[in-house]
Amino acid sequence: MSEVVVLSPSFGRWSPEPAQVLADAGLRVRRAALGAPMTPQQVIGQLPGAAALIVGLDAVDASVIEEAARRGELRVIAKHGVGVDNIDVAAAARAGIPVVHVPALNSGAVADLVLGLMLALLRRIPEAQQGLREGGWPVLAGPELSELAVGIAGFGRIGRGVARRLEGFDASVAAFDPFLPPDAFGSVRRTGTLEELLETSDLVTLHLPGGQDGPLLDEAAIARMRPGAWLVNAARGELVDEHAVARALRSGHLAGYAADAFTAEPPTGSPLLEAPNTLLTPHMGAYTRATNARMGVSAARSIIAALTGAPLDHEVRPAEEGRR
Ligand SMILES: NC(=O)c1ccc[n+]([C@@H]2O[C@H](COP(=O)([O-])OP(=O)(O)OC[C@H]3O[C@@H](n4cnc5c(N)ncnc54)[C@H](O)[C@@H]3O)[C@@H](O)[C@H]2O)c1
């Protein structure tokens, strides 16, 4: 019986379906996740008997691929997520081991969390609860979303999901995304520049990829935001200069910052931990039961396809075909 070795701690964590799909196909599942992503050496230790690997953030570098190729047992690597920067896809391609990932199935889950962060930040829900638990009765006031101009930077799957939800709250919504044609914005006001979005929004929410040239919201960009504006970042920590955000919170230029992503995770020693009016969650935007089930089932089906020689819908190919 072929063995699927699961390194990702979140595969099927909140739903039994993904493991069941594998079991129904006659595959044995061996869970091997540690408390932290595995090093290449640790992944190599899991290779004996593995026909498939389900990886999270574990380091599957060229040394792992070489060892897998030498052993000749591993027939597919499945990423339980979208980004494959922790997998040497080119090395895997050279070794003839397909890499599959889970397409973006989490946009609804992240958009839901973003609305939660916005409402909690604006109405100061965590602070109110804290004061109440400490024996007080801190009645706090904040704005309604319908009073605010909300600016969305990055109008992809999650950005659009946030816009759809905001419509239900009667917010006035604008978006900046230079890579989309004007007709992709529907009823949402499109701004031509990031600066315009920052200058005309009471609340800015980020939904673009990381890996930009330096932080998108550096000190100067933050200074362009309206005094007393709120900022939400459920995309990538590196999109903002976290020190500049902390300074803007302390000076009151920013009224609040909610983040589900940080430059370092967990953000040990981050200036955000000491800054006022922050609402910080541990990169949990994608963690709903429904999304967890969909992601796991998608990975399980891709593995079954790979092991049975069926076409792969979600194969990741090397970025540069010529890289050797
Ligand atoms: N918090 C979480 O758990 C979680 C989960 C999934 C994704 N994410 C992050 O959310 C972000 C958005 O994900 P998505 O699924 O919507 O991606 P997506 O690819 O569907 O959309 C991203 C959009 O950003 C736009 N964009 C790229 N560079 C830009 C720039 N410089 N300025 C403005 N727009 C720009 C692109 O044109 C695209 O439309 C990513 O950073 C992703 O890593 C976070």
UniProtKB/TrEMBL annotation:
The keyword Oxidoreductase applies. Pfam families: 2-Hacid_dh, 2-Hacid_dh_C. Residues 33-316 form the D-isomer specific 2-hydroxyacid dehydrogenase catalytic domain. Keywords: NAD, Oxidoreductase. One of its GO terms (molecular function) is NAD binding. Belongs to the D-isomer specific 2-hydroxyacid dehydrogenase family. This is 2-hydroxyacid dehydrogenase. It comes from Brachybacterium phenoliresistens. The lineage of its organism: Bacteria, Bacillati, Actinomycetota, Actinomycetes, Micrococcales.
